Each structure stands twice: as structure tokens, then as C-alpha cells.
Amino acid sequence: MNPQLVIGALLFWVAAWALNEYLVRRHGASRIAGFAVPVIFGVTLLVLWEGLTRGLAVPQVLLPPPSAIWERLVNSVPMLWADFQQTFKAVLAGYAIGCLSGFGVAVLVDRSPFLKRGLLPIGNFVSALPIIGIAPIMVMWFGFDWPSKAAVVVAMTFFPMLVNTVAGLNAAGSMERDLMRTYASPWLTTLIKLRLPAAAPFIFNALKINSTLALIGAIVAEFFGTPIVGMGFRISTEVGKLAIDLVWAEIAVAAVAGSAFYGLIALIERAVTFWHPSVRSGRA
Amino acid sequence: MIARLWHGNTLPVLIVVAAILVFWYAMAVHMNSPWQERMNARAELENVPFTEFASQTWAQAKPLLPAPHQILGEVWKATIEEEITSRRSLAYHSWITLSATLLGFAFGTLLGIGLAVAIIHNEASDRSLMPWIIASQTVPILAIAPMVVVGLGAVGVTGMVPKALISMYLSFFPVVVGMVKGLRSPEQIQLDLMATYNANDWQIFTKLRWPSAIPFLFASMRVGIAISLIGAVVGELSNAAGGGLGVRLLTGSYNGQTIQIWAALLLAAALAATLVALVGVAEKIVLRRMGVAT
To answer: CATH number for the domain including A221?
Structure first.
């Protein structure tokens, strides 16, 4: 027990909160406040975490302080990097195949209203299912290495992409479609010049949802058996050895990678759908 | 009649489902045939007619891909024929998963509503919380499931609570996002009316903001309950002694009991579908009583 640390952390929290209130009231509209306020909040969380875990002597098994996690992370960079590569092979391969095939099937299905009515309810239904449960089956089919994880990711990302793309292809207004028809534009031209751009916000929505799903799918699939490398493998074995600081280091890597992946797609979205109202008003 | 079937959703869905089933049986023959051929060669069976060969591949004990009727048979055997308290009963395991899901979903919904109310009424918490709530979802949270289960287990918290916490973390997010949108959905003219009535914050909340947020709440809850089931299943992977559908998946994968895996998957899917449908029914009833939907 170390009461000073606890009180210090709590005081820091109060001070940071007051600072945030001040920033929002005085400079609410400025860009600096929009950036600084969440950063201050994040720093406060870290300080509070550090102060409370050290001050209250929380057991390492339950929650190690951030400084210990950072130390562990810096000390085991080569291992973390190897795990990251192994897992991201599965994430990227599965993400690419799942999103592309979902997109392709959606474009094909869009030509047949009958298939669309048949597939869409099923796609919506499957999106709500715990698809991650197929991981043990995929490990049986595709072996222990990364292809089985990629297969899980494909299955998880396919349906959100299918459903969103089909919805997006219907987003073009009938006025615009009529205009394309008066130009005697063939199906492909209409698709490329009108309907795909109109569908872009929906497609990017699916890409963003899938970026999170892909990472989750690959990591959880590794719980069911892997070669002795990979983020999911490391997490499940180190938890067994109660090396919780290493697990947190692995999670920090996963969090940074996941956020970067998401952020990258959000950036591409801003560049591609610059015309969309949600981007124009500066609130993506 | 036929035209209505053709243009409605029922017939297309049925045809697609039938196509999937046919494809499934064909794949079962294809994937299970190498093993079956080896078995037949060992038993010195030659020139097995195709129909018999196909039915052999649909009746293996540990097939690579079990046929649908095998999975249904296993579900029937493990839910109806077993004692409900037995550890071999799938109903028993489903109940474990369901209870953790519901507890976590309740916590997650309450937490989500609480955060949304805080965000609505305080500009500073809006600015500081929202980016982190969104960032919290780019973290592959299911990855920390084993740590939550083992960590809490080390200090004596076991059973349903750790799994429910994982479900909570997953399900609060859609609720926050939906409720923030919903609580902000009243238009300025409606807020102005409340102001002319001299309504205080509490009255504005209970009489205007909360009722207009209810449709958003239900839409979020439909998403939330599906992912809190996923959270509970993944949480179970780390505590093999506790039971639940996740444990059935795990033991099935260790023992190569593919039929058992598929049966657990089917029950998890049925559970998810039922829960989502129940939320949908509750939504319909509440909205009708509020006079929103007709």
C-alpha cells in the first residue's frame, strides 16, 4: 500500500478533468482542443492506472502497471515482431480474399433480383452468428499454419462486405439512373461511373468493420492450435504461465496495429469519398 | 399466389437454402471420400456403387465435413435424449453460455446508456470519451479474453462473471454509439418547445430525449446481444472446466469430434438467432405501445 501514489493519481485526474473542461469551454471549436482533449484524457487514464496499481499494490497477475508492460514490450521486440508477422500474414490474406469475394459476389448478385432477395436475408442472418466458432474446423481442414487462420478471416469478413455492397449498389438515386439510361449507358459503364461511387461509403463501412473483425478472427483462431509463433498463440500460452505483462505487451501491439489498420482505411475513405456530406462537414 | 411467392422473400430464401444444402452434401462426399476409399480398400470392398459410397461418406464417425443430418442427429441426441443436468447434454452447456451472455448484455447495455447520458450532458466528456470509445473497438478485445478469465480466476472470481465482463465490453459499444445518436435525435424545435415550458434537464430527458432514443436503443441492442454471445463463447475457451458451448468447441477440436463441433456451432447459431429475434419482438411491442410504430 502506498497512499501517496493513490492520492497523487486521483489529484492528477481531477486536474486533468478541470483542464479539459477549461479547454472545451474556452477553445471548444478550435482544432487544438479537438486534438488535445482526448490526448489529455488518455494520459490521465495511464497515470490513474499506474498510480492505482502501484499505490494499491494490485497483484501483477490481475493488472500490471503500464510502466512494467512498456519495459516488457521493449525487452521482447524480436519475439513480438515475429508474432506480429505470423498473425498479419493471416489477417491480410484473409481480409483481401474475404473482402474481394464479398464484393464480387455482391456485384454478381446485384444483377439478379431473385438471388438478391434470397441471399440478403441469409447474409444478414449469418452476420449475426458467432462465425468465429468455425476456427477449430478450419484448423482441421487447412492445418496449423496461417492458411487456416486466413480461412476464418475470409468467413468472417465475407458477409459484412456482401451485405453492405448490395445495400450500397442500391444507393444511387433513380434520377441518376434514369440519366444514365437516357445516355444509353451499358451496365458496366453505369456500374463504374455511377453505382460504385455511390456505393463507396457503404463499402468503406464494411472495410472498416472488417478490419477489426479480421484481427479478432486471426488471433482467436490461433487459440485452437498454431505453430509456436503468433499473437493468439503467445497470448494463450503466456496467460497459462501467468506472464501477464507479456500478454499486455502483445495486446498493446495488437491495439496499435488494429488502430493503424483502421486509421489507414479511414484515410483512404476520406480521399475516395471526398464528396460525401459526412466527409465535407469535417466529421467522418 | 405463385407470383407473390416469387416476388416475396420466402421462396428465394428457401431456394438458396436448398442450394446450400445440396452443395453441402456434395462437398461432404468430396471431402470424406479419401478416407472412405482407404477404409473400403482395407475392407477389400471393390466397385462400391456410387449411391452406397455416398451414403458411406455421410455416415462416418469422425468425418472431415459431417452431413447436415448427422449434425441434426447429434443435436437431437445431445439435447433431448441426455439428462438436462448431465455434462454431456448440450442443453446444459447452452444454458451456461446463455446465462453469461444475458448477464454481460445487461451490464453492457446499462454501461452504454450511462456513458451516452454522460456524453450528452457534458461537453468535456463528449470530447474526451468518444475518441477512446471508438479506439476501444479497434483493439481486438476478444484477444484479452483468456487474460480476463485467468486473471480474475487467480483472485477467486470464476464462473459466469469473467465471461459476462467480456460480453459487456463487446456489447456496450453499439449501445453508446446508438444512444448518443438517439438522445441527440430530438430536433431543435422540439427542444425549444420544452424550453418554453420551462422544463428542466431531467424533464427534457425523461419526456423528450429518452422516448426519442428508444428506437435507436433497440437497433443497438440487436447488434449488442449477438456480439455478447460471441464474447461469452470465446471467454469459455480459456476455462475448460467451466462448461459452455465454447468448451464443447474446444474439446471437440482436441478429440477430432467434428460432429460435436458442428452441433455446438449449430446451437450457438440457433441461440444467436433466437436472442436477436427476441429483441426484435420486444422492440415491436414497446414501439407499438409508445405509438411510434403501427
So the answer is: 1.10.3720.10
Q: Distance (Å, rounded) from C-alpha A71 to C-alpha B263?
A: 45
Residue range of the domain that includes A168: 76-280
Q: Are residues A256 and A213 in the same domain?
A: yes
Whether A66 is covered by a domain: the verdict is no
Q: How many domains is chain A partitioned into structurally?
A: 2
What's this model's pTM, rounded to 2 decimal places?
0.80
Residues A39 and A108 in one domain: no
Whether A90 maps to a domain, the answer reads yes
**CB contact, 8 Å: A2 with chain B?**
no
Same domain, A38 and A118: no
Nearest Cα to Cα of residue A248 among A32, A8, A50, A1: A50
Q: Where residue B113 falls among pLDDT bands split at 50, 70, 90? A: very high
Strongest mean pLDDT among A176-190, B30-44, B251-265: A176-190
Smallest CA–CA distance, residue A136 to chain B, in Å, is: 6
- Cβ atoms of A110 and A199 within 8 Å: the answer is no
Give the three cell numbers for residue A202. 457503404
The angle at the Cα of B36, spanning B31 to B38, to the nearest 5 degrees, equals: 115
Residues 179-218 of A with CB under 8 A from B: 211-212, 215-216
**Class for the domain spanning B90-290:** mainly alpha
> Phi and psi dihedrals of B42, rounded to 5?
-65, -40
| Per-residue model confidence as pLDDT tens digits over B145-194 | 777 777 777 777 777 888 888 888 888 888 888 888 888 888 888 889 99
Interface of B with A in 2-41 (CB under 8 A): 6, 8-9, 11-17
User: What is the pLDDT confidence band of residue A94, given thresholds at 50, 70 and 90?
Assistant: very high
Percent of chain A at pLDDT > 90 equals: 7
* A164 and A131, same domain (yes or no): yes
C-beta atoms surrounding B121 within 10 Å: 13
A215 within 8 A of B140, measured Cβ to Cβ: yes
ipTM of this complex? 0.75
Distance from CA of A20 to the nearest CA of B (A): 6
